[in-house]
């Protein structure tokens, strides 16, 4: 089979699985978008997929810049860990930054937004699996810092929250993490600071190739899928 045929089959399978998860869960969002993660994808694969799908995500700012310039017609998201000195590149090239993991980074993105004359859209990353190797706010931190975070949003738009579940062979093990993110989002949306700042935490970025189905069932609006999209493709 051709490259495009395999990609189309993989894409259809994932989109069908998303739709089925939406249909069977009362907690599912009405609209779920697939972010095609291209971190390990060969450029030929990315170009072929760009004819089939509009939204892409990159983990590294340099590769984000390169691929966003190569395929400017696509919507590019920054989904990987971001250092403050790369804030301007992320603001320039990303439609949405998923990985704001500290107040200082949020402030750096705000400053970069002002410099670029562009109000960046961002998600706040929570570490709900409580793993030391993962970055992000703890539930306690996001609650205690919420007033400062909302006050730092003058030059940008806080659109929602993001998390990564612990790696596991059983996708159901990830469900409590995804449910907790939705519950924290709902709680923060009721805070006075949220309303005063005009913030609507409508987006939940959660779920990857191995666990996106329970993520959708628990309310994900963005799922980040890479390896499953590119499965079965021959190395160029």
Structure description:
With 236 residues, this protein is α/β, with parallel strands linked by helices. It has a single domain (3-225), classed as TIM Barrel (Alpha-Beta Barrel), CATH 3.20.20.10. The chain has helices at residues 3-24, 43-50, 61-70, 87-93, 103-116, 139-144, 146-151, 175-189, 192-196, 212-217; strands at residues 33-37, 55-58, 75-78, 96-100, 120-126, 156-163, 203-205, 222-225. The protein has an 8-stranded parallel sheet. β1 (33-37), α2 and β2 form a beta-alpha-beta unit. α3 (61-70) runs parallel beside α4 (87-93) and α4 (87-93) crosses α5 (103-116). The longest helix has 22 residues, at 3-24. 41% of the residues are buried. The mean pLDDT is 96.
Beta content comes to 15-25%
Assign the CATH superfamily: Alanine racemase
Biggest sheet strand line-up:
7-6-5-4-3-2-1-8
Rounded mean pLDDT is 96
Beta strands, count: 8
Domain count: 1
CATH topology group: TIM Barrel
| CATH domain class | Alpha Beta
Helicity range:
40-55%
Largest sheet: 8 strands, parallel
Count of individual helical segments = 10
Return the structural class.
Answer: alpha/beta
Order of SSEs: HEHEHEHEHEHHEHHEHE
Radius of gyration, in Å, reads 17 Å
Per CATH, the architecture is: Alpha-Beta Barrel
Distance between the termini: 14 Å
Shape: globular
* Parts with pLDDT < 50 across at least 5 consecutive residues: none
């Amino acid at each position: 089979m051709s490259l495009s045929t395999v990609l189309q089959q993989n894409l259809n399978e994932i989109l069908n699985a998303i739709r089925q998860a939406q249909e069977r869960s009362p907690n599912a969002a009405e609209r779920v978008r697939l972010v095609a993660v291209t971190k390990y994808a060969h450029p030929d694969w990315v170009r072929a997929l760009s004819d089939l799908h509009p939204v892409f995500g990159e983990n590294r700012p340099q590769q984000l810049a390169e691929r966003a310039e190569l395929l400017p017609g696509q919507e590019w998201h920054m989904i990987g860990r971001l250092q403050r000195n790369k804030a301007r590149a992320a603001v320039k090239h990303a439609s949405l930054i998923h990985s704001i993991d500290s107040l200082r980074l949020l402030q750096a993105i705000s400053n970069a937004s002002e410099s670029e004359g562009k109000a960046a859209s961002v998600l706040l990353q929570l570490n709900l699996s409580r793993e030391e190797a993962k970055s992000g706010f703890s539930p306690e931190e996001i609650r205690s810092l919420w007033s400062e975070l909302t006050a730092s949003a003058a030059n940008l738009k806080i659109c929602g929250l993001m998390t990564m579940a612990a790696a596991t062979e059983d996708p159901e093990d990830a469900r409590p993490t995804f449910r907790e993110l939705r519950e924290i989002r709902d709680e923060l949306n009721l805070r006075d600071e949220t309303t005063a700042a005009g913030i609507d935490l409508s987006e939940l970025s959660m779920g990857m190739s191995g666990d996106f189905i329970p993520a959708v069932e628990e309310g994900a609006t963005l799922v980040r899928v890479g390896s499953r999209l590119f499965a079965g493709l021959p190395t160029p």
